[in-house]
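Morning. Coffee machine broken again, so started the prediction first thing and wrote up yesterday's gels while waiting. Chain of 133 residues, entered below exactly as on the submission form.
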Amino acid sequence: ETHDSFLASATVAELLALVPSPWVGAVWDSHHPGRAGESAGQVYANIGSRLCLAQVKDAARIGTGPDGWRLVPLGEGDVPVRDMLGLLVRGGYGGWVSVEWEKRWHPEIGEPETALPQHLRLLRAWMTELGDE
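Came back before lunch.
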């Protein structure tokens, strides 16, 4: 997963290159590669062919550096989630897209009962739009 020590997709790609098996792939967490300075296009180029799961969440930049982010409802932040989904659609990705809402680790964010339905509505709208492009 593009997270923690592997937040940059370039690092994940290096690891995947060591295991050239169709049974081994990556999870693309939409938030963390941006913390490493990577664009959605760079992430897709690095790990798109080995993607097992696309995991989406959004965050707003509130400071500098990789820790200068605050989690927000989908579509209200600076993470290029819609760009990510567009790359996946155009690339023929047929796997799952999951939503991550980290209330347990970030108690200051909204309740999942509010956030998750909002995420679902926006994801459906975006996927409809992307399918029509």
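The CA atoms of residues 69 and 118 lie 20 Å apart. Going to sketch it on the whiteboard this afternoon.
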